[in-house]
Write a structure and sequence with these properties.
single chain, alpha/beta, Helicase, Ruva Protein, domain 3, Dna Topoisomerase Vi A Subunit, Chain: A, domain 2, 2 domains, 9 helices
Amino acid sequence: MNIEKYPSKLLENAVNEFSKLPGIGRKSALRLVLHLLRRDASEVNTFGNSLIQLRNEIKHCMVCHNISDTEICQICANPARNTSVICVVENIRDVMSVENTQQYNGLYHVLGGIISPMDGIGPSDLEIDSLVKRVETGDVTEVILALSTTMEGDTTNFYIYRKLKGKEVKITTLARGVSVGDDLEYTDEITLGRSLVNRVNYESSLGK
């Protein structure tokens, strides 16, 4: 096994930290670190401070659990949004994907993951109870289940459906323009937009 030799312990430490990022190997980490070394100190300081500020000051919306700079995110606080419809997604990336379609004007509910026993993630680890409470206020007329079409996503959809069944709310899901096994973030905007517009009643999708 080749052991990399670094001319500086500081350089090695920086490479070690960058290589912890997803999708970043040690060669890519070294390239990024060397790039930063070629930049002005002020630029690197700005870069580093932005990460520190992000980690220390970022908030999660008290309503939908989306990432936000304030206690209530811009989407939930926007009076032009349709507050009677909630789109249930796995994470912030999915919110961004749906927003990019420009085909949806309701609110969101970010679960923070999906049920995955293999990864030790159960219903109590997700923001499902808070979704039920939002529905129980009586202001919500439709819940759109917009999770990935994987086994874990389908399991989570069904669990939420069972929790909401019997309540005065319409439960829909994305039309199958999104292929089975796809994550929303990797679905093109046109396909995702059409799947939203042509969403179907969740119960009818169970028979397919």
